[in-house]
Every structure is written in C-alpha cells, then in structure tokens.
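Progress narrative, Year 2. Work on protein acetyllysine N-acetyltransferase from Heliorestis convoluta advanced from sequence curation to structure prediction during this period.
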Amino acid sequence: MSYPFNREQEIEACAAFLQSASKIAVLSGAGISTESGIPDFRSSNGLWQKEEVREAITRSCFSRQPERFYYYFSQLFLSWTDIKPNQGHLALADLENEQGKWVGIATQNIDGLHQVAGSKQVIELHGNLRHAVCQKCGTAKVMNGIKEKLENKMIPLCDCGGILKPKVVLFGDPLDMQEFRKAQIWMAQADLIFCLGTSLTVTPANTLLQHRRHDSKLVIINLEATPYDREADYVFHAKVGEILPVIVQKSQTGD
Ligand code: CNA
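Result:
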C-alpha cells in the first residue's frame, strides 16, 4: 500500500474509500456545527469556557437548583433558535439521499442539524433540544412551546405542576443504552467510519470506535489532534465543511 502525501491525494483516497464502501458510520461532534455558528466546548469564546456554566448545566444542579440551571440553559437554548445546517451536514445527507449510500450517524450534538439537513439514520447520543420531559408525570413537550417561558426567565412547568427537563443528556445523566448499543452495531458493521468535528475525548461516545472492524477504514476530520489520530487511515486537521463536501463530490464524479 502506498501512502500519498499531499491533501489532494488524501482526499482522492478517501473518495475512493467512499465509493467502494457499502456501510458508512459517522461519529460527529460539536465541531461539525461550529460552521453553523454554534460554538463547541473548546472555542475560546464559547459559553462553556465559563466554569459557572459547566457547573450549572448538570443533572445535580437541575435537581437541586432548577432556577440556576435554567438561567444558563436558557442563554444556550435561546441563542440556538435560528441555526441552519452547513456544508458538512448537507454532504452527509447527500450521501444518503442522492448517492443512496447506507449512512448511520451517531452524533454527540443536541442541535438536530443532521436531521434538518435531511439525514434519516441519526442516533442522538446526548439527546436533543426539540423536547422537554416532565420530571413528575413523564409527559413530553415541544421545547419551542416553552420558549416564551425561558425568554421571561421562568422555570417551565408541566400542566401537572412538575418541572420540565430538556431532553438532553446532562453531565451526571445516563445514556440511552438501547440507542448506544445500536450505535455500537453501526460501528461494528461499517466498512468506512468518519469522525467529524469531535475531540474524541468525551466518554462513552469515543469508546464507540473500539467496536469497529479491524479491516474498516477510519477517516478523522477535526481542527485539532485527537487521541485516535494514530489509528486513522487519514486525518485532516481542517474544517469539516471544507473537506467533507469535496470528498463526497469526488466519490460521486470521480474527478
Ligand atoms: P468538543 O470536545 O467541543 O470538540 C469539538 C472539536 O471540534 C474540537 O476538537 C475542535 O477543534 C473541533 N472543531 C471545531 N470546529 C471545527 C470545524 N469547523 N471542523 C472540524 N473540527 C472542528 O465536542 P465533542 O462533540 O467532541 O464533545 C462532546 C460534547 C460537546 C457533547 O456532549 C455535545 O453535546 C457537546 N456540544 C454540542 C454542541 C452541539 O450540539 N452543536 C455544541 C457544544 C457542545
């Protein structure tokens, strides 16, 4: 096997992987959505840089001090209401819908942008911002329906009086194990895996890579180095939106 050295050759090699792949699994993270204007955990201007925010958006804070939780959570939620998918999300949706590829996306994101772009097989490992669930009676409500309460700095309540909790996996919450197992199976079945815009430092999401087949191909696109770079066939320390659409397009046209 020969190893190309320049980026164009690497992109062509990934396009060839893509062309011959029958099952493609994707693990995406906050970095795929920064080009839609949502800061990741590591951005210097991100809300997460503030320690009080990291402490407040947790299960224990929600349980003990819901007003403090919602003070910070509302800032996050209300700043994400007019976001749109970018070229990275759209390239994945094209693979599935235009090229007819089997694509399974396990995302750590809670922004729902893969589905807005048109991807159909999406596992939201950390939940989503579309719904909130009553902690007393279990009724699910659409988050947009409680937007006004959040704008008015009120704690959203269910009709039964219970507090509504956004359907996101907070620090201290367990993952949906059924969904997680499904993501493990996708990783084990895939012959090509893309890790897109994730630092691959958050467990257990990053352990999904341990389930991949030894003969599968691994391509990482992330601005900074990840602990899995050495295991990858190709690594691009670049923006997802700059690299992925080119790989997808080349895999289709061959030029
Ligand atoms: P992370 O740990 O913040 O890592 C993101 C990675 O993306 C970093 O290594 C960046 O260098 C990289 N990056 C940033 N922009 C780009 C880009 N345009 N192209 C390529 N790489 C880029 O985020 P992870 O997803 O790895 O960690 C998981 C956390 C982050 C999950 O719990 C998420 O719920 C949480 N999160 C999600 C969102 C969202 O839903 N959009 C936003 C912020 C945080």
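Residues 29-31, 33-35, 38, 40-42, 108-111, 126, 197-199, 201-202, 221-224, 239-240 surround carba-nicotinamide-adenine-dinucleotide (CB under 6 Å). The first strand starts at residue 23 and ends at 28.
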